[in-house]
Design brief:
11-stranded antiparallel sheet; Lipocalin; 3 helices
Length: 191
């Protein structure tokens, strides 16, 4: 069942939550934020002097359809990043769409992975897929990047959290869902 329809049917009590998969309910939670933007902060980082710490972080649930949710992630004035969550036949996929200011793709883009477990209505995990692992090798990214696992958490009315973890590396940014902010400009490369 698709997210917007599922959200309406769940709200009206026409579909039992037991019939919806965790992925369906997770996407419904994301879709409930569509059009809204929220400010956040780094709450955990194993990188000394993490470049995101101290920057204004804003996530904007900008585009929602039955099969895809696009969430630009702005770091200061940098509008190069968009998290893209799409449905797959077996769950969800997270990809990172990185663009240059002129809209062209960065050489390190479209990396991410698919869920391998049902996850929960509040948290979905995305281990690095084969495409990402090969790109990380090719681009000589830090050792261990091939073991990346990204996670997204949504706690309605409280927080949205983005996480990157691997052995020896942890990054978590948390966004306050109680205080919407004005939506930022479109991400680089958006139509």
């Amino acid at each position: 069942m698709r997210a917007p329809l599922l959200a309406v049917l769940l709200t009206l009590g026409l579909v039992s939550p037991a019939l919806a998969s965790p992925a369906d309910e997770f996407v419904a939670r994301l879709s409930g934020l569509c059009g809204k933007a929220f400010e956040g902060k780094v709450v955990a980082s194993s990188t000394p002097n993490d470049p995101f710490t101290g920057q204004r972080l804003v996530m904007h649930v900008r585009e929602c359809s039955a099969d895809e949710v696009r969430i630009p992630f702005h770091v200061g004035e940098n509008r190069s990043r968009t998290w893209v969550i799409t449905r797959t036949p077996t769950g969800l996929r997270l990809k990172h769409d990185h663009r240059h200011e002129d809209g062209s793709e960065d050489k390190v883009t479209q990396y991410g992975g698919d869920t391998v477990a049902p996850g929960s209505v509040g948290r979905q995990e995305f281990p690095a897929d084969a495409f990402s692992k090969e790109m990380f090798r090719r681009e000589n990214l830090p050792p261990g990047a091939q073991e990346n696992v990204w996670a997204v958490e949504v706690e309605p009315g409280k927080a949205f959290t983005y996480e990157l973890s691997r052995p020896g590396r942890l990054f978590r940014a948390e966004f306050d869902l109680t205080k919407p902010v004005d939506p930022p400009p479109a991400p680089w490369g958006a139509k």
